[in-house]
Design goal:
The chain is of the alpha+beta class and about 160 residues long. The protein is built from 2 helices and 7 strands; from the N terminus they run βββαββββα. It is about 20% helix and about 35% strand. A 7-stranded antiparallel sheet has the order 1-2-3-5-6-7-4, covered by helices on one side. The longest helix has 20 residues.
């Protein structure tokens, strides 16, 4: 399988503390991404902490949504090399995610129309799909980037 780890260019931005992927966020998920070239997908392996539970031993649904949204974003980033913002997240929670476990998150871009990108994402535990999402992202140009983040467009990755 041809795959390669992805670099996180946002780590160069002062104050970058993403809950999903920043290694500097003490409460975060610390996701790292790999581009699976054969499958045209981005994936990550994650082992959530007990602090990410809703019920004892069951991963919180909001954390599942975050995991799917994050891997979806990185699929957009890999394919289009541009930042984007989530505009819609439709998620199906199919099975309870019991932890501790290593979760596999996978996402791929399925459609691009002007500034909107649609992604399909899946959350798997031991190859069994536990959740899936269809996510729409808005591609950010320098004006949108500055308006949303307050950072100069020079910080645009």
């Amino acid at each position: 399988m041809a795959s390669r780890p992805m670099e996180n260019p946002y780590l160069r931005i002062e104050g970058y503390n993403c809950f999903g992927c920043s290694p500097r966020n003490p409460y975060g998920l610390h996701m790292q991404f790999v581009h699976d070239e054969e499958a045209s997908e981005v994936y990550a392996l994650v082992s959530p902490a007990p602090e990410h539970c809703g019920y004892p031993g069951v991963l919180h649904g909001g954390i599942q949504a975050t995991l799917l949204d994050e891997v979806g974003y990185w699929a957009v980033h890999q394919k289009l090399e541009a930042p984007a913002f989530t505009t819609r997240l439709d998620i199906e929670l199919l099975k309870a995610v019991r932890i501790p476990a290593t979760l596999e998150l996978r996402a791929r871009v399925i459609e691009t129309r002007r500034k909107l990108v649609t992604v399909e994402a899946r959350l798997l535990v031991y190859t069994v799909e536990h959740a899936r999402a269809r996510i729409t992202y808005y591609l950010a140009d320098s004006r949108v980037w500055e308006k949303v983040t307050g950072l100069p467009a020079a910080e645009l990755c």
